[in-house]
Amino acid sequence: MSVAEQQRIARYGKVNPEIAIKFKDYQFVAVGSKVFYSKAWTSFTDFLIGYVPEVFDKKWWAAEIAKAPAECNQVRIWWEALRQHVKAQQKRTDGNYVVTHNGFAGAYLTFAYDLYVVEHNGRLDETLIARLKNRDQFQGARHELFAEATCLRAGFAIEREDEKDKTRKHAEFVATHLQSGLRFSVEAKSKHRAGVLGMPGVAQPHEKINLNFGQLINNALAKNPPHPLVVFIDTNLPSRAAHRLYAPRIEDGKEIPSRLLLGLLDRVAKEHGDSDPYAMLIFSNHPQHYALPDMPDELDPQKNLLAVSARHPAPVWQSALLALYRAANLYGNIPNEFPAR
Length: 341
Fold this sequence. Notes:
Blueprint lengths: L2 H10 L6 E5 L2 E6 L2 E5 L5 H13 L1 H8 L8 H14 L2 E2 L5 E2 L4 H18 L5 H8 L4 H16 L2 E5 L12 E5 L5 E8 L23 H8 L7 E6 L4 H8 L2 E3 L2 E3 L2 H13 L8 E6 L18 E6 L8 H11 L13
Helix pairs in contact: 2-5, 4-5, 5-7, 6-7
């Protein structure tokens, strides 16, 4: 393996490399079995901006554009915010823009890149696309997309469960670690909050936001999956509230999780015979959608990640779970330029 390939994997994970070529005035990009092209793309970021409308269907996208913002799908709102943000930036002599960090831009581009990763590695299907198009289902489907992209970046193969089988409950998918051959059931849970991501109601002040995620974990465990369970949990918090959950404490010179998180883990274990009924919990908080354009410190809110393994994990799980943790940390790493040819 070349040094360049090692560096690519370290930054973007064990996913298929980008495939792109410039021919005459057109930039072509291969994504899985599809080929997209445009004269307007001068960077990989340009491609991602135009990629989502193509995947979602141009007629559906045009209908979204015609809607009032309050009725739009969340990704359409991010797309418009990104366009307006780019227009406000400094234009270089080559015609490109120097774009500063922005929460809404980050929300759109990370979504577009996760969508690309899943399709480029052969796992995007019409069922997931339909859920992403559905305004009421977007939040949960987006988090499942993050879970799938993370597993692919970690070197796992994905096999979706057969939802038509009504004989038992199903996790989102089964992930097989290609290096070890171990199989894990994967469940993705996202915390809904009033007034956020299209949910009805009024958003609460950060100091009053509920930080209890036990029900989400128990709902995942209730699936009783056939393989060791990995649960991806989107805590969906503004940065100041997330700090209360994610900020570690220092005891005897060592960092340990917050009391809130330890209390949550202890309650889950107590409800399941004083043992951890999961292989790993991956708590994540990607709060770009909480961005406040009129507050510079909140333009690109801090992201959080915390992975918790079972306190007595099977030794053979170690390499696979470590790969998942490392891959989850790659969220937000997005190529800017097309690959050199």
